[in-house]
Amino acid sequence: MSARRLVTGIAIGLTVIAASGAISTGASAAQPSKKYTAAQVAKHATAKDCWTSINGQVYNLTTWIKGHPGGSGPILSICGRDGSSAFNSQHQGQGGPAAMLRKFQIGKLG
Ligand code: HEM
Which of 72, 73, 83, 90 is the most exposed place for a label (fewest CB within 10 A)? Predict the structure, then answer.
């Protein structure tokens, strides 16, 4: 095989790997500038599709329902609605929950 064909093959291979998502910056690309209304958040109010708004930001917590150390109940209770007071009263000032929350951000209220 010529060096040129080898380089072309490697380039195609890397393109395929990148396009497949095997190399990515995160499980779901955060789009913090995307805006959603409270009415849009309200359409995602189930255990299979759970959005919430907390302190002006919008989050998709669907995959966190089963992962939450405090149980699924608190997360389920804020699906489709504003979870600011629930989250703040439990986790205000705690770095761990705030850092975890950032991973689920899909946009902001607006
Ligand atoms: C909204 C209402 C919420 C309530 C009432 C609540 C409640 C709790 C409780 C009681 C614990 C302690 C569990 C234990 O140690 O046995 C806990 C832990 C935790 N929660 Fe929440 N939670 C809420 C929302 C969230 C959200 C939205 C996130 C992040 C997406 C989150 C992230 C965490 C994390 C990371 C821990 C472990 C903290 C640690 O051990 O340092 N929680 N939660």
Answer: 73
Residue nearest to atom 16 of ligand 1 (CA): 70
Instruction: Give the structural domain span for 48.
Output: 31-109
pLDDT tens series, the chain, 110 aa: 566 665 554 544 434 343 433 433 344 556 678 999 999 999 999 999 999 999 999 999 999 999 999 999 999 999 999 999 999 999 999 999 999 999 999 999 99
| One domain for residues 61 and 82 | yes
* 74 close to ligand 1 (CB < 6 Angstrom): yes
Q: How far is the CA of 101 from the centre of ligand 1 (A)?
A: 10
Question: Cα(89)–Cα(87) distance, rounded to whole angstroms?
Answer: 6
81 lines ligand 1 (CB under 6 A): no
24 and 35 belong to one structural domain:
no
CA distance 89 to 25: 31
